[in-house]
Amino acid sequence: EDFLNLIFKAMMKDSLNSSHSVSSAVQSSEQIEEMFDALSYIKGASLLLMLKHYLTKDVFQAGIEVYLHNHNYRTAQSDDLWDSMNEITNGTLDVKKMMKTWIVHKGFPLVTVVRKGKIISVQQEKFLYRVEPENWTSDASYLWHIPLTYITNRCNFTHCTSAYLLDQKSG
């Protein structure tokens, strides 16, 4: 419950146009200090949980083990973690490409799901809680690679979760 409260606080901050991305190039030590705030840590943790759920616990753990083995006693960058995950997925999913959309973009998407008969359509757009005129920038081109999981009525709710990667504005 405490973690959920932290996530919702971070999402509130991240839903403002004045938010910042989890990862970005820095030019000074002051910029480094600005980047390491609650938003970066909580959003980062949430993104790792999202990835773990999408890849499955075993695949995610194997990717972490490869990452720790390949980079023990050395410095690492975020791409190194995604590359380790790509090693484990054997090219079935470009984890780096997917996760870059989450760590480079500020904010998060609003996913709208519409059902018409047996047809389900999904659409994404950047979610903004409140527009701050002094910090306004157009983020209309933002596109996330959103891992969606779903269950149909053809299963007994055990091991029947299906997955879909929404990597377009709509699908």
TrEMBL record:
Superkingdom of the source species:
Eukaryota
Q: Which GO terms describe its cellular component?
A: cytoplasm; extracellular space; plasma membrane
> What does the record list as GO biological process?
peptide catabolic process; proteolysis; regulation of blood pressure
Q: What are the entry keywords?
A: Aminopeptidase, Hydrolase, Protease
Q: In the UniProt record, does the keyword Transmembrane occur?
A: no
The Swiss-Prot or TrEMBL record annotates one GO molecular function as: metalloaminopeptidase activity
Residue stretches making up the Peptidase M1 membrane alanine aminopeptidase domain: 5-102
Show the SUPFAM superfamilies listed in the entry. Metalloproteases ('zincins'), catalytic domain
TM region(s), chain numbering = none
Q: Would you tell me the protein name for this molecule?
A: LCAP aminopeptidase
Organism encoding this protein:
Myiagra hebetior
Q: Name the lineage.
A: Eukaryota, Metazoa, Chordata, Craniata, Vertebrata
